[in-house]
């Protein structure tokens, strides 16, 4: 499983689940902007990030900073591996909608991709208590600890993630290259990949 999977969409049963989960409490987009957002989400699900971006450009300019639009834009930039822009987009989403766990996760993930792993850890750590039922937060903290060589701390975070959703964490962890330092220290992963 590629590391980008940790950003959220790959961890959910489908990308459609992601977009239904992240609906903000702000006023929803109205017609026709809502249709452009839905089309952009559809293009993302089909793997066409260029068309998704084109749909977002059709949204009224003043509404392009809506958290739902920023969420899709983050995925487009992540696909392009434009991690600096991803940090900015996630930061803007956090300011507008701080109760969206994915925004915090996305910002830290982008920081990690920029080789700013300690900063990724430091930015994500405080929201772990706020979003206690989101397994991705302790999971990503475990990955960051593994990459920073803090393997005992890594194990603790991985256990916390498993306490939230053991099956999903096991499936994600078995092939995650960010956890390789942990698996190497243990002589291999604890689980077998599901075929």
Question: Which SSEs are present, and which pair or pack?
Answer:
Blueprint: H1 15-21, H2 33-45, H3 49-57, H4 67-79, H5 83-96, H6 101-113, H7 117-124, H8 136-147, H9 151-173, H10 180-186
Helix pairs in contact: 2-3, 2-4, 3-4, 4-5, 5-6, 6-7, 6-8, 7-8, 8-9
Determine the CATH superfamily of the largest domain.
Tetratricopeptide repeat domain
Percent strand? under 5%
Portion in helices? 55-70%
Along the chain, the helix and strand elements come as HHHHHHHHHH
Net shape: elongated
N-C termini distance: 13 Å
Catalogue the unreliable spans: 1-24
Query: What is the CATH domain class of the largest domain?
Result: Mainly Alpha
How many distinct helices?
10
CATH topology title of the largest domain: Serine Threonine Protein Phosphatase 5, Tetratricopeptide repeat
Work out the count of structural domains. 2
Largest sheet: none
Structural class designation = mainly alpha
Average pLDDT level: 87
Radius of gyration, taken over Cα atoms and rounded to an integer in Å: 17 Å
How many strands in all?
A: 0
Oligomer status: single chain
Q: Please state the second-level CATH architecture of the largest domain.
A: Alpha Horseshoe
């Amino acid at each position: 499983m590629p590391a980008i999977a940790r950003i959220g969409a790959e961890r959910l049963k489908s990308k459609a689940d992601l977009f239904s989960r992240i609906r903000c409490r702000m006023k929803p987009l109205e017609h026709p902007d809502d249709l452009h957002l839905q089309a952009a989400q559809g293009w993302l699900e089909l793997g066409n990030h260029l068309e998704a971006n084109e749909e977002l450009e059709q949204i009224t300019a003043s509404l392009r900073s809506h958290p739902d639009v920023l969420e899709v834009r983050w995925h487009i930039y992540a696909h392009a591996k434009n991690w600096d822009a991803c940090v900015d987009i996630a930061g803007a989403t956090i300011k507008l909608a701080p109760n969206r766990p994915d925004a915090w996760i996305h910002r830290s993930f982008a920081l990690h991709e920029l080789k700013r792993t300690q900063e990724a850890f430091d930015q994500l750590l405080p929201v772990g208590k706020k979003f206690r039922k989101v397994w991705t937060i302790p999971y990503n903290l475990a990955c960051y600890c593994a990459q920073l060589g803090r393997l005992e701390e890594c194990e603790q975070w991985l256990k916390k993630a498993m306490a939230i959703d053991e099956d999903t964490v096991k499936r994600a962890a078995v092939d995650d290259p960010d956890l390789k330092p942990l698996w190497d220290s243990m002589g291999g992963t604890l689980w077998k990949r599901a075929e």
